[in-house]
Write a structure and sequence with these properties.
six-stranded mixed β-sheet, Aspartate Aminotransferase, domain 1, globular, Aspartate Aminotransferase, domain 2, 2 domains
Length: 278
């Protein structure tokens, strides 16, 4: 629809592990030994409108890909006006706004899409994972009529956008069943309420620990950010873990939580000092 080939993405993003998705992730850890990547991609800082406006003004970029909340970067929540202004800038310069809601969609943040907290409607939305309740591979791409008409303007072009295993009836049925449950049991509103309760209780319980820097989130997507301890008796093992591998502290934490308390969680893939709580 734009006649352009350039793609913009935000630093800290995690969009997936195919070459196309890796092309919009700047961390060398994920890209190592893969390639070649898409040629015309560029990164901008997340939650920085001035930095976004500059490349958009060149009118070289077909789309700006962004997560409404950056999960793997450490549950990074943007300023209230960030997505709205990004939407306005994209429209001004003829760039499509594409939201990756794989981790934030399906009422996980309390709204069907996290973008709905900010009153934003994107040109395209990518969804997956929770769409089937996590039981079977399932994904969906939402798009405006303008984008749809450009992609599927004829039967011939529609066939090009199929694949052997993309039309899976069981996956689609699981997706419909998941949507029914989410709506009938009002799980979006529950996520808003219970998320606030969870974060408040975590703040109360963890207030006395010097390594806990912040607890943040929206709905049932939350994170506990840790920091290096000041006490020598804690700093020595912490630095030893970090010397072995930058993710060692987080992985030990995940292991102990599961082994000792039966709590299944994970650290953020692009920020090893933030523990996901969901």
């Amino acid at each position: 629809t734009t006649g352009r080939s350039g793609l913009l993405y935000a630093n800290g993003a995690f969009h997936g592990l195919t070459c196309g998705a890796l092309s919009m992730m700047g961390d060398g850890f994920w890209r190592e030994k893969f390639g070649p990547m898409l040629a015309d991609t560029a990164a901008v800082p997340f939650n920085d409108l001035a930095a976004l406006a500059e490349p958009l003004a060149t009118k070289r970029y077909a789309a700006f890909f962004v997560e409404p909340v950056q999960s793997e970067a450490g549950i990074r929540i943007p300023n209230a006006d960030y997505l709205r202004e990004a939407r306005r800038l994209c429209a001004r310069y003829g760039t499509l706004l594409v939201l990756d809601e794989v981790q934030t969609g399906m009422f996980r943040t309390g709204r069907f899409l996290a973008a709905h907290h900010y009153g934003v409607e994107a040109d395209m939305v990518v969804m997956a994972k929770a769409l089937s309740g996590g039981l079977i591979p399932c994904s969906a791409v939402l798009m405006t009529d303008r984008v749809y008409d450009a992609v599927y303007h004829s039967l011939k072009r529609s066939i090009v956008h199929t694949s052997t295993f993309s039309e899976n009836a069981m996956s689609m049925r699981a997706g419909l069943a998941t949507l029914d449950v989410l709506e009938s049991e009002n799980l979006g509103e529950r996520a808003l309420v219970m998320g606030e309760v969870l974060r408040e209780r975590l703040r109360q319980q963890l207030a006395g620990y010097e390594m806990v820097r912040e607890i943040r989130g929206v709905g049932m997507l939350s994170g506990i950010e840790f920091q290096a301890p000041k006490q020598v008796r804690l700093r020595l093992p912490f630095e030893a873990f970090r010397h072995i591998h930058s993710s060692m502290f987080g992985q030990v934490l995940v292991m102990r939580l599961f082994r000792d308390h039966g709590i299944l969680t994970q650290i953020c893939g692009n920020n090893f000092m933030v523990l996901k709580v969901a």
